[in-house]
Each structure stands twice: as C-alpha cells, then as structure tokens.
Design a protein that fits this description.
449 residues, Rossmann fold, Helicase, Ruva Protein, domain 3, five-stranded parallel sheet
Length: 449
C-alpha cells in the first residue's frame, strides 16, 4: 500500500482491524503493523500521523517514539496504552508525543485528535522548518494579470509595494490572494528578504501563538526546545497572515502590539523582542459582521487595513479564464515532460461559461483533472467535469420570495447552492460568501442535511 497517510502500530490484531476500519471511514488511508521497527521503515513525507501502542514485540512505542525524535521527525504521534501510569504518559510527552490515550479509548476522541494531527502535518509540510516557509526567490511570483480589473490591481500593487504600509487583501477563496501578496513582496525593497506565510485557521490557538511569536523551552507541555516564531523568521521581509479574520480574540492584542509598537514576547518569556516585518493580511469574510459580533477588534482592523485591495472573482475576469487555463496546461505539460497540452475550442467555451465558485484554485484543479483523461494531449469538453458542461442555469434562483420568512429563504438558498455544488459544503460557503464554519452552523440551525 503506497498511498498511506496514517500508520497504526499495535500488537493486538483485533485493535488493528478496528482502527484500520474506523480510520478509513474518517477519510484516512491507513497501514497497520505490529511493532515499532516497522513504523520506522514505513515513515515517509506523506504520513500525517502515527498511532503507537506502548507494548509491542521487538520495539515498543516509547522506543519508537525516541527513535523518531532522534531522527528529527516531526510527524504527530499519538500513544495508545493499557496503562494509566502518569510517569509513562509524561515520558511519552517529553519524547514529543502529541497525545496519550488509555485503553479502552473513546473512538470519537481519538479521531478528533487524529484530524487535528492531520491539520498539523499539512502545515508542517508547507513549512517543514522556518526556512522552508520562507522564499526569497522573487523572480516569478506566479501572478497573471490579463483582464482590465487585474491589470489595474497590478499597477496599484506596484505602487503599494514601494511603501511599507500594511495591506489587507480581500476577495473570495481561491482568487489568488497568496500569489498577490507574494507579488507585492517581490516588487518591494524587502524583495531579497524572507517571505513567510502563516495560515491563521490551520492551527489550534496554542500552536498558532507559538507559530507566530515563538516559545521558550518548557513554555508548555511538549515544548522540549526553544523555537523562534514566524515574526522573527521574517525579519527584514514580509509576513503574510492568511485568513486573518480567524485569528483568536486573545491573540489579537499581541498582533496589534506588533503593528503599533513593533514589539512582542515569545510564549513563556518576559523578554521583549523587536519586530522588523511588513505585514500583509488576507480574508474572505465580512469584517463589519465580525466586529459587530465582537469577534474581531476594531482597532486591529484599522491597523491591518491601511491599504485595502480587493481581488475580483474569476467570473469577473472575462477572457483571463482561458489565459489562466492555458498557463496551467503549459505547467502541467512541462511537469509531465510532454511537448504541449492544448485546450480545444469546445472546452474553452465551457470554461468561460462556468461561474467558478472556487475561482482560480478550482480552475487549476479542473485543468489538472481533465488533462489526466484527455487523448492526444488535447482537453475537449468531454474531458471536463459534468458540472461545466451541464446547460442548467448556474446562478442561484429562488422564485416566489414574497410571503416567505427570511429563515425559509435562507434555507432554500443554502439547499439550492448545496445541490449546485454537489454537496460540497466548503464550495457552498464560498459561493454564498460566508465562512465554512458558518455554513455548518446555519445548516444545523435550519435543520438542513
């Protein structure tokens, strides 16, 4: 099995089968072994998490955990044990275990921990070390501007880049805010310095604080060594805070202090550090609603939005859709070492007619997927996903609004958009212009399945 992302190590065959079955149900691709030595042999860059039993033949869980730590491996490890000894749990945590669960364990609790571990692994792969989260190669930012709205925005970005003001990039998910932030950095006087990205909703609050500000050894459970934060790693360069609207309220004053006084303190330290970064933020949420609900500080909003720039949705960019599609096709052809990858006129018509709720990110995904099925290196309409070639109206239409309650109208809008998006809640949220968390809350409140 080559595509595993979860290693389950337990000497009890029944437990292995149960965990393997449940892991598959929760969206993991598990592989099972009965000792620690096999775990070490299976570890690779695609593994998101490891489940380790304490007592196994040959190499037990703690020995395996220690070997992983010595190799500098950062894959999240959850220890399973029939023992409830505090000393054993403490030893596991000191060796770097993310969590320690005693048998019999609660499956919901275990897989909630595993999902958190998977999110952590995603961030670690994007930023395996602080330097891997940094890019000083600014010759190609990946920005493509062809439509009039994007060309205007590009000129504005070039002017803004010369300043050191804080920039807030707004727009729907998938419009390329990260690419645009990198472009601003590449045109600035900080271009030869680091460009560091932090995704605010990707980590739990405790880890996010450490990620931003760093921590001292022993600052919290599992802090086995001192670590510098992304603010220090970005020194002299640009710090890009993606989805800034999801920054926890209790961390907002610390970021405000960085913006106002250029000062901060690592977790577990009283030492005051000086910051030297240009901060660019991005969001797809409505800040007015967040501020009204006291979920975002108004003073911080004014600090991050000194220069606001809105990225237009892909459906607003006209023939830039084809320019981008051909760009992605060219890159795919280069990666696959083929001469070219062509988009047929019938496919181009379908691409320009579609409403693209997922924006540029969705377009890239469609070209990648379609290229896998096409013949003679030519993408035709038949190769495209069916949602692009269906003739039904793609926009949300609700008839007979008058006389209905707002709750009923909202429920109908969500239900129709869910159907349009094939049941994909994240895509539904983007189409409706709300956060993914909001879609779940609204569906629960309105009794939608």
């Amino acid at each position: 099995m080559k595509n595993y992302n979860l290693i389950i190590a337990d000497d009890d065959a029944t437990v292995r089968r149960l965990l393997e079955m449940k892991a598959s149900h929760y969206g993991f691709h598990p592989i099972t072994v009965d000792n620690g030595a096999e775990v070490l042999a299976l570890v690779n860059e695609h593994v998101d998490a490891i489940l380790l039993d304490i007592h196994m033949p040959g190499m037990g869980g703690l020995e395996c955990l220690e070997a992983l730590a010595k190799e500098g491996n950062t894959i999240p490890v959850i220890i399973l044990s029939g023992e409830q000894e505090v000393s054993v749990a403490m030893q596991a945590v000191k060796l770097g275990a993310l969590d320690y669960l005693c048998k019999p364990f609660d499956l919901e609790e275990l897989f909630a921990t595993l999902r958190n571990a998977k999110r952590m692994s995603l961030i670690q792969r994007e930023n395996t070390s602080l330097k891997e989260g940094i890019s000083s190669h600014t010759s190609s930012s990946g920005l493509i501007a062809h439509a009039a709205a994007m060309l205007k925005l590009q000129k504005q970005a070039e002017k803004v880049a010369r300043l050191d003001s804080t920039v807030l990039l707004t727009g729907e998910s998938g419009t390329g805010k990260g690419v645009f932030a990198r472009y601003i950095h590449s045109q600035s006087e900080r271009a030869d310095k680091p460009f560091v990205t932090v995704s605010c909703p990707a980590l739990p609050r405790e880890l996010l604080e450490s990620e931003l500000f760093g921590h001292e050894k022993g600052a919290f459970t599992g802090a086995i060594k001192k670590r510098i934060g992304k603010i220090e790693a970005a020194k002299g360069g640009t710090l890009f805070l993606d989805e800034i609207g999801d920054l926890p309220m209790d961390l907002q004053p610390k970021l405000l202090n960085v913006l106002q006084d250029h000062e901060y303190s690592p977790v577990g330290s009283e030492k005051v550090m000086k910051s030297d970064v240009r901060i660019i933020t991005a969001t797809n949420i409505n800040f007015e609603e967040k501020i009204a609900n006291q979920e975002f500080r108004e003073d911080l909003y004014y600090r991050i939005s000194v220069i606001p720039l809105r990225l237009p949705a892909l459906r607003e960019r006209g023939d830039e859709i084809i320019v981008l599609a051909e760009h992605f096709a060219s890159r795919i052809a280069k990666n696959r070492k083929i001469k070219n990858l062509t988009i047929a006129p019938c496919a181009s018509d379908a691409l320009t007619s579609y409403h693209w709720p997922g924006n540029v990110r969705e377009l890239e995904n469609v070209i990648e997927r379609s290229s896998a099925f096409c013949e003679n290196h030519t993408i035709t309409a038949e190769d495209l996903p069916s949602k692009l070639t269906q003739k039904e109206a793609s926009s949300l239409m609700i008839s007979g609004l008058a006389g209905n309650t707002l709750a009923k109208i909202e429920a109908e809008a969500i239900q129709q958009t869910l159907t349009l998006c094939g049941g994909n809640k994240a895509q539904t949220a983007r189409t409706l212009g709300i956060t993914e968390k909001s879609i779940y809350n609204k569906m629960k409140r309105l009794g939608l399945s």
